[in-house]
Amino acid sequence: MSRHLTTLDELSAQEFSDLLAVAVYLKRRRAQGIVEHALAGKTLAMIFEKPSLRTRLSFEVGMTELGGTATYIRGEEVGMNTREPIKDIARVLSRYVQGIMLRTFSHANVVEMARHATVPVINGLSDACHPCQALADLLTIHEHLGETRGLKVVFVGDGNNVARSLARACVLSGATFVLAAPAAYAFSAEDVASFGPAWGSAVSHVPDAAAAARGADVLYTDVWTSMGQEAERETRLKDFRGYAIDQRLIALAAPRVKVMHCLPAHRGEEISDAAVEGAQSIVFDQAENRLHAQKAILRLAMADDAERVIAAARATT
Ligand code: CP
Fold first, then answer.
1. What string of pLDDT tens digits covers the 317 residues of the chain?
2. What residues does CATH 3.40.50.1370 cover in the chain?
3. What's the CA gap between 154 and 300, in Å, rounded?
4. Which ligand 1 atom is at minimum distance from the Cα of 263?
């Protein structure tokens, strides 16, 4: 894994696979009651400009389980580029802690932090992407379907940060990704360019949700109105009518289909209550896997024995 994790674009398929293998390994060892304090004496600074349940808790519990400490910092308190320039925050934090996790509105803030920090910077969600979520998602898909290669993963809804990272994670894992979204919410030309040769083959856009869902191994969605888009809520509710994951869409998918949502969910909007609670739903395993994925990211970014733990994980896979 490269030093920072700002987007999945900076990972090779091998590095992504290593992260998955280490996540599986750490999850198994936790279940066996094996404690390894690989990050003893190390601290992660976590800056949140947006609310969080899963990301905050998974990083905080992950650091504790690895023997380290996590410090929560409210975005308003540090005032990135208002109270103080990011380049100064990055250099000060780098004198105090061994890792920085940042959840921010603007991806440019993540890039700026990584440019000036001398410790690893991990993107805990920006407007561009949510790489930590996508790692947990592929871990969950692999657990439930026994593979990732050749699967059809259909994201129904906004082509947002979660969809973008999931698409990249599918490319890295050999799965096919289909975005089912109205034309106005499809990936941008810049996104399409970033997928390179995968666009049109491994990654595609199908405007009709029912057509996209046919034969899907995974149906995935996220809220239609993300944090910071509240003013667009009424327009989005209209635009996404017909794009909810419900029994109608699930019936069109493959018999073994799994239903996923990064949470929090707006039941009755992008997903029905029955779909969240139904037999095909794996949303709470997905939420749990944020912890195991985060531990793998922290372990490979902040510990001194990345090669050893990858080899140990590979030897037991
Ligand atoms: N899925 C996700 O990122 O959850 P939180 O916003 O609660 O961290």
1. 658 999 999 999 999 999 999 999 999 999 999 998 999 999 999 999 999 999 999 999 999 999 999 999 999 999 999 999 999 999 999 999 999 999 999 999 999 999 999 999 999 999 999 999 999 999 999 999 999 999 999 999 999 999 999 999 999 999 999 999 999 999 999 999 999 999 999 999 999 999 999 999 999 999 999 888 899 999 999 999 999 999 999 999 999 999 999 999 999 999 999 999 999 999 999 999 999 999 999 999 999 999 999 999 999 87
2. 8-130+290-315, 133-286
3. 30
4. 1
The CATH code for residues 8-130+290-315 is 3.40.50.1370
d(CA 260, CA 285) in angstroms, rounded, equals 9
Buried b (16+ CB within 10 A) or exposed e, 192-221: eebbeebbeebbbbbeebeebbeebbbbbb
Residues 6+ away with beta carbon under 8 Å from 111: 6
Residue 42 CA to ligand 1 centre (angstroms): 24
CA 287 to ligand 1: nearest atom = 1
CA atoms within 13 A on the CB side of 221: 30
Of 137, 158, 217, 222, the active-site residue reads 222
Going from the Cα of 287 to the center of ligand 1, the distance in angstroms, rounded, reads 9
Among the listed residues 18, 54, 98, 103, the single catalytic one is: 103
3-state SS class at 162: helix
Q: Residue 317 is encoded by which pair of tokens? A: 């896979």
With a 6 A CB cut-off, is 262 part of the ligand 1 pocket? yes
- 133-286 sits in which CATH class? alpha beta
Q: What are phi and psi of 102, to 5 degrees?
A: -130, 125
Cα 256 to Cα 166, 252, 305: the distances in Å are 20, 11, 39
pTM for this predicted structure:
0.97
Q: Which of 4, 98, 133, 294 is catalytic?
A: 133
